[in-house]
Amino acid sequence: MITNAYPASLQELIRQLAKLPGLGEKSATRIAMHLLRADRDAVERLAASIQELKQRIRTCERCFHFTDQPLCAICADPARQNGALCVVESSADLLALESAGIFRGTYHVLQGTLAPLDGVGPDDLRIKELIERLQREPISEVILATNPTSEGEATAHYLLQAVRHRTLKVSRIAYGIPMGGDLKYTDRVTLERAMEGRRTIQ
């Protein structure tokens, strides 16, 4: 509980910071105290950056990743137009793949997964836009890279049914044992995925 010993404006800042993902009241208090000690210019630059974020950031017209231009840097790069399209749930997933440097095609961000119990259906995601891209762009392979959750699997299955009649390759990313993992501590679903995703080595 935020102590009343703090001035009202400081209490309000701590409350707002504590709403951020991964921050509790203690972490929010540390950040608030840091901002209180920082010089005015640094705090004003931070505040301006947050305001600019909301004013300038939008979604890419093609893939729905975050950008401050009509097209994101990936969609605007001619070298990425190689016919491979990776479908992900969120921009966070896209950034994870980009950080790994393992994919050099383009992306399509669904902005969520199917979750009927929560009222999230196909019309709430960017599925219609995906189908339109497949009709409009020279795409030869669709890689379904939704997460290995029940919602992610349901979404991948729905997308497979929606695009399988088209003359393109549809693949699903494999899931398996992580590097440094131990078989005896691995859950059954992960072991099953690892076996299904096995490949020939000779």
Helix and strand pattern: HHHEEEHEHEHEH
Helix content: 40-55%
Strand order of the largest sheet: 4-3-5-6
What is the name of the CATH topology of the largest domain? Dna Topoisomerase Vi A Subunit, Chain: A, domain 2
> In one word, what is the shape?
globular
Main β-sheet: number of strands, strand sense, barrel status?
4 strands, parallel
Describe the 3D structure.
The protein is of the alpha/beta class. It folds into two domains: 8-56, Orthogonal Bundle (Helicase, Ruva Protein, domain 3); 66-196, Dna Topoisomerase Vi A Subunit, Chain: A, domain 2 (3-Layer(aba) Sandwich). It has seven helices and six strands. A four-stranded parallel beta sheet has the order 4-3-5-6. Strand 3 (84-88), helix 4 and strand 4 (106-109) form a beta-alpha-beta unit. Helix 1 (8-18) packs across helix 2 (25-37). The protein starts with 7 loop residues before the first helix and ends in a 6-residue tail after the last helix. The model has no long low-confidence stretch (mean pLDDT 90).
